[in-house]
Design brief:
30 strands; elongated; 12 helices; alpha+beta; 30-stranded mixed beta sheet
Length: 624
């Protein structure tokens, strides 16, 4: 029993001792804030920021300390001024700064800081032609760290040992900085207005010189909210304009892109890595970026992925996969920048399927049609971008016309734009053509050339929606038309040129010549429906040539030669009104050739007039 009582006494004494120690510790800890001087913390914070940045720092003189839940100091009126011109405008000003500090180090008179919060800061950044900025400094722990990291990297590249003085200070890192409602004012051209990023919120974290530096920020730029998430495993090398690994993603409503690779931000900027870019509207993205390029008004979504290699005046996109308004292509592109010429995009793209119309709209503005706007169309794009693309497609369509095995080229150069189809298969035959656009001169406006050989003419008519008594068979088509206005502002009445069609061994469906002659004897007017159902008029050859001007087609040659009869047409087709004014002759072949009459009933020469509207013409026989 005595043993138990003694044991309990020892335990109680131990517990009492521990409680006494805890009480003393708590009393000491509670009294620590009383030993912290706000002036010492303020002065040390001002000195640390200045030593890191290498620029004079000014903090407010009314610090506020708070010890729960974390010891912090709050100061108003933060200013950092450039070391080269201390009397100049601040490179950073903030309404308030809040910094976390270590309590025990503060008691010892040397407070250390780990996290910072800037309230409504304004960062003023001026970029100079020599790649320096108003933030550049030859002193400061950050500058020392950058110089040491660059020296080490140069030695490593040369296969040499690091130089002895190349020591990176432990305090070269930024720490963790939270930005609340910040602004960045950027001046890269003294003659241009400053760019502004506003409503910046987020975090910059760089806890040690060799640690990964990360940024996660949200801002407003040119009226659009954007999110920036980035990191680099070698921040000192990146700041020192050396090649460093970079991961970056910028997201906004007009444009989203990401990059993973290596970058150097010096005068000879270099980028190499994987690029992924998406835009729901290229027109909107170009307007937002304020690029001096007038895009096609109808151009919508653009997506691309590629391995990019870029230098100051050129970039190369390898392993490119691009989607332009539902046209998916793969290939290689080269982009060249020059002060003496517009940007040049050149390369090769291969498509499984290609909508030629929407592809062309990607590079041309598309207002409404009509002469009233043609004179006001902005054709600056012809001088704002150079284009030299070689295209191929397994299948393609130009409006309703379907092509296959297409080899084409698109070129924009010195005020002219050309789209050439060098070779294509269409409707059983071959096709080649050109669409050329120029903004001025005798060849101004648009010029369309088309040449087709051994094509199924009937299938072509079906594709473009032409109906009526048209010759069907295998034939050739040549067309050349021009307009004084660009394609998007050209109406049918603006076209001038010529069309030639030749068809061999074909048929005009529904054209029953026997019934035609019978009705011509008894009727003053009749239409093709009255001819009844028949296999049509079979011909050995058909030739058509017409000139086009002012919305009318003037038939110069129109002949269909059958076994015993021929049809000859002449006149005008005011196609802009879908009307007809054609004189025709239906004559026996023998009579037409001045030879003896062919076997069978004697056929007379019949003259007639074709009026009404297409595709339902009205026939009026001409009385001898």
């Amino acid at each position: 029993m005595k043993f138990i009582i003694a044991q309990w006494s020892l335990r109680r004494a131990a517990i009492t001792g521990v409680l006494a120690v805890l009480a003393v510790a708590l009393a000491i800890f509670a009294s620590l804030p009383l030993a912290v001087s706000s002036g010492v913390v303020r002065d040390r914070l001002e000195r640390d920021i200045g030593a890191w940045a290498g620029h004079p720092v000014s903090l407010g003189n009314a610090p506020s300390l708070d010890f729960w839940p974390t010891p912090t100091i709050t100061l108003d009126n933060v200013d950092i001024r450039p070391a080269t011109f201390a009397g100049g405008d601040p490179i950073l000003s903030a309404d308030r700064i809040v910094a976390n500090f270590n309590l025990f180090s503060a008691v010892l008179g040397a407070p250390s800081f780990s996290q910072f919060k800037l309230i409504r800061p304004t960062f003023n950044v001026e970029l100079y032609p020599d790649t320096r900025s108003n933030w550049s400094s030859s002193s400061g722990e950050l500058a020392q760290g950058i110089a040491a990291a660059v020296a080490r990297d140069l030695a490593a590249q040369a296969g040499a040992a690091p130089p002895m003085p190349a020591t990176i200070p432990d305090s070269a890192a930024l720490g963790t900085v939270t930005i609340e409602d910040g602004t960045v004012t950027l001046i890269s051209d003294p003659g241009a207005p400053a760019e502004k990023f506003t409503a910046i919120n987020g975090t910059l974290a760089w806890t040690a010189p060799t640690a990964v530096a990360r940024a996660n920020l949200v801002a407003i730029f040119r009226g659009e909210q954007l999110t920036l998430v980035g990191s680099t495993a070698a921040p000192l090398l990146l700041l020192g304009k050396r090649l460093a690994p970079v991961e970056l993603k910028v997201s906004s409503a007009p444009l989203t892109f990401s990059f993973v690779g290596k970058a150097s931000l010096g005068a000879g900027i270099f980028v190499s890595g994987a690029l992924d870019l998406k835009s729901p509207s290229v027109r909107r993205a170009l307007e937002w970026s304020r690029a001096d390029i007038k895009p096609g008004e109808a151009l919508g979504a653009l997506e691309l992925t590629a391995k990019v290699t870029a230098e100051p005046t050129k970039a190369k996109l390898d392993d490119l996969i691009v989607m332009i308004d539902r046209n998916r292509g793969i290939g290689v592109l080269d982009i060249t920048l020059s002060d003496a010429a517009p940007p040049l995009v050149a390369g090769t793209l291969a498509f499984n399927s290609l909508d030629i119309g929407s592809f062309l709209q990607a590079f041309t503005p598309l207002p409404l049609t009509g002469a009233d706007i043609a004179s006001t169309i902005d054709t600056r794009f012809l001088h704002q971008i150079g284009l030299d693309l070689r295209l191929s497609a397994q299948s393609a369509n130009l409006g309703p016309v379907v092509l296959s095995n297409v080899a084409a080229a698109a070129r924009v150069d010195q005020g002219r734009a050309n789209f050439d189809v060098g070779d294509a298969t269409a409707y059983g035959g071959s096709l080649l053509g050109r669409i050329a656009l120029s903004e001025k001169g005798i060849e101004g406006g648009v010029k369309v050339q088309l040449s087709a050989r051994r094509i199924d003419v009937g299938s072509l008519f079906d594709a473009i929606g032409l109906t009526g008594p048209l010759p069907r068979g295998m034939g050739s088509l040549d067309m050349e038309v021009t307009s004084p206005y660009p394609t998007w502002a050209t109406a049918l009445t603006d076209l001038t040129g010529k069309v030639a069609l030749s068809v061999e061994k074909g048929v005009v469906p529904g054209l029953n010549l026997q019934k035609f002659r019978e009705l011509a004897k008894t009727e003053r007017f009749f239409d093709l429906e009255q001819l009844g159902q028949s296999t049509g008029f079979s011909f050995a050859s058909a030739q058509f040539e017409a000139t086009i001007a002012a919305g009318e087609a003037d038939l110069k040659t129109a002949e269909l030669l059958g076994e015993r009869q021929m049809i000859s047409l002449s006149g005008v087709i005011p196609y802009s009104r879908s009307s007809l004014a054609i004189a025709g002759v239906l004559a026996p072949i023998a009579a037409a050739e001045g030879a003896s009459a062919a076997s069978g009933p004697v056929l007379e020469t019949l003259k007639f007039f074709v009026g009404g509207s297409w595709p339902q013409p009205v026939i009026s026989p001409v009385t001898p």
